[in-house]
Amino acid sequence: xxxxxxxxxxxxxxxxxxxxxxxxxxxxxxxxxxxxxxxxxxxxxxxxxxxxxxxxxxxxxxxxxxxxxxxxxxxxxxxxxxxxxxxxxxxxxxxxxxxxxxxxxxxxxxxxxxxxxxxxxxxxxxxxxxxxxxxxxxxxxxxxxxxxxxxxxxxxxxxxxxxxxxxxxxxxxxxxxxxxxxxxxxxxxxxxxxxxxxxxxxxxxxxxxxxxxxxxxxxxxxxxxxxxxxxxxxxxxxxxxxxxxxxxxxxxxxxxxxxxxxxxxxxxxxxxxxxxxxxxxxxxxxxxxxxxxxxxxxxxxxxxxxxxxxxxxxxxxxxxxxxxxxxxxxxxxxxxxxxxxxxxxxxxxxxxxxxxxxxxxxxxxxxxxxxxxxxxxxxxxxxxxxxxxxxxxxxxxxxx
Length: 400
Ligand code: ACO
Prior knowledge:
Elements: H1 6-10, E1 31-34, E2 39-42, E3 45-46, H2 47-53, H3 56-65, H4 71-83, H5 89-95, H6 104-114, H7 128-153, H8 167-176, H9 187-199, H10 207-216, H11 222-233, H12 241-252, H13 258-266, H14 287-302, H15 308-321, H16 324-328, H17 336-346, H18 353-375
Antiparallel strand pairs: 1-2, 2-3
This protein binds acetyl coenzyme *A (ACO).
Acetyl coenzyme *A (ACO) is lined by residues 237-238, 241, 265, 273-280, 329, 331, 334-336.
C-alpha cells in the first residue's frame, strides 16, 4: 500500500524514516522488485531470462530506452559504445598521481570525477542529446578506466580498447593482455563476465543509485554524479560485499568451521555478519543469487576448477537456510554470495571485485540519472529531526 504524504507535508508534517526503509523518493519505470516473492524485473523482463538469453549491451539498451532493440538499433548502439571507449591521454597522467597500492575503487572514483573536467564545455544536462552522449561516454569508458586501475596497481602498461571484441571480452583483454602476450578470451569466460555484468546492471533505488539521483538532482555534471555513486558503492554493506564475502569464505576455510561463524553472526555482542546474506528489500531468495549460483557451477565445471571455497559456500548456505535465526530474520543469500567465486575463477583479483560491480552498475546509474532528467527534476532535500540544543546565548571569549 502506498501512502502519498505530499498533501500532509504541505500542512507542515513530514515523515521520519531513517535509511528510507519505506519512503519512495521518486517514480521510476526502470526496475521492479518484489522483495517478499524474490522477483526482479527490468522494464518488465525477468532477470533470469535476461541473464540467460541476452547480452549485457542489450540489457543496457533496454534499461536506457525501455524497449528491446531491433537488430539495426542493436548494431548502431554497439558501434556507438565501441567508438567511445578511448580515454583522453591526459587521464593517463592523472593515474600516475595515485600511489600504486591505492584501492582501485579510490582511483576509479577520482578518475571518473576528473572526467567532469574533460566533458563540461557546452555540456547542457537539460538537452536530451547531451544527456544521451554522456550516457554513451560513461558506458564506454568505464571498462577502460576500470582495467587501467588494475594495470596501474600491478605496474603494467595500459592496454588500449579493441573495437573487434564484445563489451565483456574487450574488458578482459584490457585486464589481462600484456605487450608480450595477448590474452585469449574463451567463450566460457566471455559469457561468464557478460552474465556478471547483467546481474549487477540495476537494482532500483539502492544506496549508490539514490546517491547518483541526489547528486544529479541539482543539475550537476553527470561524470561527477557517477563518481558520487562509485563512492557509495564502495562500502562493504553495498558493493564491497562480494570482496568481503570471499575473504570471509577464505577465513572459514573448511566446512567444519562454519558453525563457529554462524554463532558469531548470531551473537549480538559481535559485529560480525555473514557477508553475502541479507538484503534491505529481499526477504526471500535474491533472484540474482540463484542465477549466480548456477553460473558459478557452470564456470567451475567448464574450466575444471575444484575450488574448495565453493563447497564451503554451498554448505554455509545450506546450514544458514535451515537455521532458526536466519529463517526468522528472512536472511537469504544475496547476489554477492556467489559472484566473488565466479570472479575468482575468471582470474579477477579480489581488490577488483567492487570495480567490476561499478562497471556493471554504471548503466543503472545513467539510466536513472537520464530518467530523472527526462521526467523533470526536483532537487533532493531530505528533512531531519533536530535533536541538538535549543537557542542559547553565545559568550565571546575574544579569541581575535
Ligand atoms: N548476518 C547476520 N545477521 C544479519 C545479517 C547478516 N548478514 N544481515 C542482517 N542481520 C540481522 C541484523 O543483525 C538485524 O538483527 P536485529 O533485528 O536483531 O537487530 C536484522 O538482521 C536486520 O538487519 P538490518 O541491518 O537492520 O537490515 P538492513 O535491511 O538495514 O541491512 C544489509 C541489509 C546491509 C544488506 C544487511 O543484511 C547486511 O549487512 N548484510 C551483509 C552485507 C551484504 O551482504 N551486503 C550486500 C547487500 S546486496 C548489494 O548491495 C548488492
